[in-house]
Specification:
About 40% of the residues lie in helices and about 15% in strands. The protein has about 375 residues and is an alpha/beta fold. Strand 6, helix 10 and strand 7 form a beta-alpha-beta unit. The N terminus is likely disordered.
Length: about 375
């Protein structure tokens, strides 16, 4: 085949001029050093963002090979080999003096203390407003809701030292519809950010989901084939401290990529300052591109080092000092934040399984559970 006049490649032979030159190879080496677990498509997109050149991923793979960058995939280990390498023994954690509070007048350890109630009392009290005065104190009703979410007891088993369970349930339903528990958590979240020396408005967020089993109560349920769980799925968006920004409840059969748009939109409406969103591989690809286009948020996919689908990019030019050997368990950057939030929520037994047939009650329980945790932190 004859080539066009003037088209000379780097070796001096006639042919098409290569789309990627030596300068692009240096940029690619920088990209894979910053994103060692990125897929080939993500490396191609990042190259287009930095250099403004749009090429096929096959061309990028060839340029990486010429630059001495290869992709290593971990070998499969047997179950016996995985069992020999256990986790190191770290410090033992658990309940401390902050969690061992004295009993309230109602005889329960789950009630809000005076310091905790002072932080949120104005959200529930309506002093000076027209209407019939409440028959039962608002603090007693909130304490009853805290008792239910912490112990997981049915409504009919609410201790009579609080109030009749029908009155407690109607108050809980009214506050959930008005978004009072969410407003309670949002106020305490901003206060905790100020105490930690951070801005109340976050700039980074993390998204993840958790499938929890359902109960015979029924409701909108499904089967998560990946986790082998029949029930519902909680989709969370948290800030860099692991505090909730948005939550949605769907059937467990709904894929993570199909629920991302809704929960991210709610988080962005509450905190428009979000600039970066950390996700796992379930939200990669077209879903990540759609989020970036809709809200202008940079989506970074954090993959496991042992991911055999993408592997790890490694430069042939090794550093002077060799890296440490691979560990059996590696904490994933930023992903551990939302995983810790899931663990926080499961301290409350009402959230271990879905005991409510409705879809609004599980949302209210999540907001109340974290609001209780933040109130305890701030009061101590």
């Amino acid at each position: 085949m004859k080539s066009k006049a003037g088209d000379i490649d780097r070796k001096g032979k006639p042919g098409r001029k290569p789309l990627l030159g030596a300068e692009h190879g240096e940029v690619l080496r920088v990209i894979v050093a910053e994103m060692p677990h990125a897929s080939l498509a993500e490396v191609t997109a990042e190259l287009a963002r930095r250099c403004g050149v749009k090429v096929n991923p096959v061309t990028v793979r060839k340029a990486l090979r010429e630059a001495g960058v290869v992709r290593l995939k971990p070998l499969r280990r047997s179950s016996a080999e995985r069992g020999e390498q256990g986790r190191g023994a770290g410090p033992r954690t658990g309940y401390n003096a902050m969690h061992r509070r004295s009993s309230s007048p109602e005889g329960q350890h789950t009630d809000l203390t005076d310091a905790e109630w002072a932080l949120v009392a104005d959200l529930f009290e309506r002093d000076g407003q027209p209407g019939v005065p409440p028959r039962y104190p608002r603090r007693v009703m909130v304490n009853a809701c805290c008792y239910v979410v912490r112990t997981g007891c049915p409504w009919r088993l609410v201790p009579k030292s609080y109030a009749p369970w029908q009155a407690v349930y109607m108050s809980f339903k009214r506050w959930a519809a008005a978004g009072t528990f969410e407003a309670m958590q949002e106020r305490l979240r901003q206060q905790w950010h100020r105490r930690e020396g951070k801005s109340p408005e976050p700039t980074a967020a993390v998204i993840d989901s958790q499938s929890t089993r359902s109960t015979p109560q029924g409701g909108n349920t499904g089967f998560d084939a990946g986790k082998k769980v029949k029930g519902r799925k909680r989709n969370l968006v948290v800030d860099s401290l692991g505090l909730l920004l948005a939550v949605t409840i769907t059937a467990a059969s709904v894929q993570d990529r199909d629920t991302a748009a809704d929960v991210v939109a709610k988080a962005y409406a509450k905190a428009p300052t979000i600039k970066k969103l950390y996700t796992d591989a379930a939200y990669a690809g077209q879903r990540a591109a759609a989020i970036e286009k809709a809200h202008g948020i940079t989506v970074e996919v954090v993959r496991r080092p042992g991911n055999r689908a993408t592997g790890t990019w490694r430069d042939a030019q090794q550093p002077l000092w060799p890296e440490e050997s691979a560990k059996p368990f590696v904490v994933q950057p930023m992903r551990w934040v939302v995983e810790r939030t899931h663990a926080w929520l499961e301290r409350d037994r009402r959230l271990i399984a879905h005991h409510d047939r409705s879809e609004w009650a599980p949302l209210a329980w999540v907001w109340l559970a974290q609001a209780r945790m933040l109130a305890t932190r701030l009061a101590n």
